[in-house]
Here is the input.
Amino acid sequence: MTDYEAVIGLETHIQLNTRTKIFCSCKADSWNDAPNTNICPVCTGLPGVLPVLNRRVVEKATLLAAAMHADIPEHSFFDRKNYFYPDLPKGYQISQYDQSLAKGGYLDLPASPDGKVLARRVTIMKLHIEEDAGKTKNEGGMRLVDFNRCGVPLVEMVTNPDLRSSDEAARYLTSLRQLLRWLGVSEADMEKGHLRCDANVSIRPRGATYLNPKTEIKNVNSIESVRTAIDKEIERQIQEVQAGHRIESWTLEWDEDSGKLKKMRSKETEADYRYFREPDLLAVEMDAQWKKSILAELPEMPVERRERFLHQYELPEYDADILTSERKLSDYFENAVKAYGGDPKKVSNWLMNDILRLLNDKGLSPDQLKLTPAYLASLLRLVDAGSINASTAKSLLSRVEESGLEPAVIVEKEGLAKVSDKDAILKVCEEVINENPNEVASFKAGKDTLMGWFVGQVMRKMRGKSDPNVAREVLQDLLK
Here is the structure.
């Protein structure tokens, strides 16, 4: 039986997080707006209006192109892409065709830890800016149109057919989403349409070098759905070929509710769009000075920072992966390490356990915390100096976040300093022993594990301020 391999290319539409739309002053992100309330004559294509290019769209797209290792030519042009659909009020979309903002580029995918996905370079065939169309939905037996999304700035990025499995496609999207957020050019939330993906899928005998007819999968709104839809289409194409049928170049719609692919229409070609130069917009002139000012915003990339964390701070790979998953978390860690001056691994442990839990509970990003990197460093120094124990330090995290006060101020104000005075601890230990005769008898009968319980009772009575080592020493003497 023939062994088949998949050949996959992805088309992604990336909504740039500019304040206004690409050719008008309407608000760009209208996710929560009522239908047709965030529109104007320009983005709805009324007669007599002219588009004006948003400079920040070009800058954010250029930043992404540079991060993707693309060539950025000095001149690029806008074109009209002609097609008729209810959510496209002008009857054409302002896009870029043969002379776009960037050429080429690639994104390297590292191998997955489980070895399921190999390292692969995914090359870019097209990278250009364009305006978004509106959207339609069925409601009450009617087909309704919402134009709020018309004119939202997009980067369309199309890969070459370099991917060979749904896992590789999912890994590409995960890496791309991380990069977009790292650069700060897009929120990249697929559920809100900030990042949309169409998958072009074909199959061929393993080892073959030619390309067979492909199908395009649309309307996929999560990375996991992309993975599932691709797998289903690969399975369908193999069954069709084995049955002696020919694969037709269809555009398929992914139905999230049923988990099935449905035929929408035959796939268009570029000739169907009758591209011609947009007469109402001048060329984009990317002179050396403007390009230099844009590229000055380019940060250290996540892969590079991960490698630096491994060597400079001697972190384990797991820690480096987590800490470079988001730029704001990565910045928080590095600022805390610099302020602390101690073991970076200790900072990493607190971040990955306690700080991440605090962020999830509060629904905040690291840069929004009142518990600043400097405050975390101060708290760790209090632990190192023996001024507070680890239990008190953990309870301080939420108090610092709620009050915005420096940890040492809260410790002094609330009397949280660690108690190491043996006489004070002895008094509490005697109370615990007198109040729990059954546990004392069990301990003396050989149940040594109860020592931890006794220490815990002393810590509870002393509101976590007791030195646990002193408490353990006193209890051992008393229980003999």
Q: What stands out?
A: Residues 302-414 form one domain.
